[in-house]
Design goal:
This protein is mainly alpha-helical and 72 residues long. The protein contains 3 helices and no strands. The longest helix has 21 residues.
């Protein structure tokens, strides 16, 4: 499956997990949409052949595991 419909569902799921980690589990009570976007951007996987941000890949490919690793 590809496309923005699938990408949206994946991004919403990732945001839900990040908000659960931050607020529900007490790791970041001040988490908001700007913080979440920053966490996601820090965790992206980028190709060396592209210049980021760009119109096709944005800031890179979402990698939630890398986003959590960047918080340590």
């Amino acid at each position: 499956m590809t496309g923005t419909s699938v990408a949206t569902a994946i991004a919403v799921g990732a945001a839900s997990l990040l908000l659960e980690w931050g607020y529900v589990k007490g790791n970041d009570y001040n988490i908001n949409s700007l913080n979440a976007a920053s966490y996601f951007i820090r965790g992206t996987v980028r190709s060396e052949d592209e210049i980021y941000p760009n119109n096709i890949w944005g800031y890179g490919t979402l990698n939630l595991y890398n986003s959590f690793r960047s918080l340590l």
